[in-house]
Amino acid sequence: MELAEALGRLFDTIPVLRDTETVAVTDARGRYLAADVKAPVDLPPFPASAMDGYAVNRTDIDRSQGDGLTRVGVSRAGHPWDGTLAPGQCIRIFTGAKVPAGADQILLQEEVAEDSGDRVRFKAHQPAETYVRPIGHDVARGQLVASRGDRAHPMLQGALASAGISKIDVVAKPRVGVFSTGDELVDPGMPLGEGQIYDSNRLAVINLLAALPVEVVDLGRLPDDESAVRAALEAASADCNVLITSGGVSVGEADFITATIAALGELEFWRLNLKPGKPLAFGRVGECFVYGLPGNPVSTIVTFLLVAKPAVAHLCGARDSVPRRFEARLAAPLSHSPGRAEYQRGRFQHAEQGLEVRVTGDQSSNRLSAFREANCLIEVPGPAGDLPAGSVVQVIPFDGLLA
Ligand code: AMP
Ligand code: MG
Predict the structure, then answer these.
(1) CATH tag, 20-41+144-171
(2) Of the candidates 14, 78, 77, which has an alpha carbon nearest to the alpha carbon of residue 307?
């Protein structure tokens, strides 16, 4: 199965989490909105001056440059002048202050020729614009400020605050449990025995999940023992909305994840046309969605980013969770045997002709070290063979993936 088809099936299968909660806009960063939000007021709520200067009526422009106008008051931000401007009059006004009735033009303070007593006379000039922000200039009352499926980010939070909104409804945080599997694994910080390696996947997945609005549950490590795996998945699936495991999805003797998902629930597919990460189990146990990621550390991370993460983001209410790609030119040749679409670790940089990218060393799926210098994944289409320098490829920058 191709990645795009797998994602399509996941988005079709997985509903957005039904539970919602109301949170303060201040605390909403990273959450997905559960409902549209409309402006309860016009923004600005009154005609506002965009500059420091004098509020006048446009029909008085000639007069303002001839005899001048009579200054009758001042309007400051938060301290409006409540009168109505009569012909021949002006008021002093500042940025953000209310433009009074009878005025429709701001003359800039830089254009003042003479200011004595209550007379203000302006230089001969044609104002470039009115410098008046009409009511609803930013957003009119009833207009959308944010839509369901939007992700709250600082600018959106600012826009909500500017409309006076202090609380919003967001999709609840799903509980996502993370297991690693394998008798060979030891926690970092402990001594290594013969034939043992450190468990890196659980920590990597837990920290990659930090980019999503989820409640992460560290479920520890499962031994390569069928009944232990079964008991653990059964208990965890009753407590979590999503389970993510790594390892144990190949066809080796100690690979129990796939069979256990099938025994406890439904297994939907498990072979992706993807490198690294061909074996990947997706299934459902009760109400819980289970992703059995492959065990090789690079495969775990790549399949998490390309498959599990967009699907979990969809559950969280995201409208569009497929990672963005950019075009870049290969600065050095890249080798690929036709077959599976491959995601190589690469480093892009800006060059004279735009973005260029090169592969960061040996691409074996156990080599986390290839990530060290990398800042992106390079997407190599399945049918492609070796690509010469200069070929245009798609890259997926880590920046967007980790946020
Ligand atoms: P498996 O699919 O369980 O056979 O795992 C494939 C490879 O990934 C093996 O070399 C495992 O030792 C390794 N591996 C599996 N899980 C982890 C983990 N949590 N951390 C580091 N390496 C792992
Ligand atoms: Mg294993």
Answers:
(1) 3.90.105.10
(2) 14
